[in-house]
Amino acid sequence: MDVTLLQELNQARAARRAVMLVTHLDTGAQRLIHRGDVAETDPLAEEAGKRFLSGKSGLFSDADGAELFLTVHLPPPRLVIIGAVHISKALVPMAQLAGFDVRVIDPRGAFATEARFPAELLHADWPEDVLAQHPLDPYTALAAVTHDPKIDDFPLEQALRTGCFYVGALGSRKTHGKRVERLLAAGLSEAQIQRIDAPIGLSIGAASPAEIAVSVLASIIAALRLPAETR
């Protein structure tokens, strides 16, 4: 691989940006495609979109019959849970099993204890302080489940501004209506706020914390893997 191309690839991976290395199997020619920067006129635009969603590398024949190998590099997906509550206790192991790097943030000492959550993923601090050290990015999902605006609102605002691939919040429609008013006052647009999955999770009639956790994880995976128009 060309040194310049390798440096570009490594820089993208270090910055948690999705890229795809295209290798022409006959000529050995290579190029990089960055997610979000693919021109509509690029002959690989449609296929690149599918690959960036699935994360799967593999062979592809272009319109001219050339054999290409598409190597997809996606950042490991993260899940930041705001609130060390019962739903979170069920959601953490499920999300880890699904391959997510999980972090739980809650400043309330009664909830954020090592007896309830593994120490290596628990942050018993305010979201403002934790996210300053561990910023959100487009390959992060955020689930706010404390039901407390003093704790939930800041990370929700940051997630929407950063472009997290999933943003969900616990609460009734009435509660969410008040949340929308606060976020509008904070300067977010209606289009940004509409991205919030609220009430949080897939509508499956979930009742128990474990069932709600299943519905939340299902929504997160759908946001990660499915085109927006099909969700």
Structure in words:
This is XdhC family protein. Residues 79-220 form the XdhC Rossmann domain. InterPro entries: MoCofactor_Util/Proc (IPR052698), XdhC_Rossmann_dom (IPR027051). This protein is of the alpha/beta class. The protein has 2 domains: 3-73, no CATH class; 78-230, 3-Layer(aba) Sandwich (Rossmann fold). Helix content is 39%, strand content 19%. The chain is built from 8 helices and 10 strands. The protein has helices spanning 3-14, 45-54, 86-97, 127-133, 149-162, 173-185, 190-193, 209-225; strands at 19-24, 30-34, 58-61, 67-73, 78-82, 101-105, 122-123, 140-144, 166-169, 196-197. Strands 7-6-5-8-9-10 form a 6-stranded parallel beta sheet, with helices on both faces. It has a 4-stranded antiparallel beta sheet with strand order 2-1-4-3, with helices on both faces. The radius of gyration is 20 Å and the shape is elongated. It starts with a helix and ends in a 6-residue tail after the last helix.
Strand percentage lies at 15-25%
Shape label: elongated
Write down how many β-strands occur, each being a DSSP E stretch of 2 or more residues: 10
SSE topology string? HEEHEEEHEEHEHEHHEH
CATH class of the largest domain: Alpha Beta
The poorly predicted ranges are none
Q: Under CATH, the topology of the largest domain is which? A: Rossmann fold
User: What structural class do the secondary elements suggest?
Assistant: alpha/beta
Query: Taking Cα atoms only, what radius of gyration do you get, to the nearest Å?
Result: 20 Å
Helical coverage, percent range: 25-40%
Pfam families: XdhC_C
Protein name: XdhC family protein
InterPro entries: MoCofactor_Util/Proc, XdhC_Rossmann_dom
Domain XdhC Rossmann: 79-220
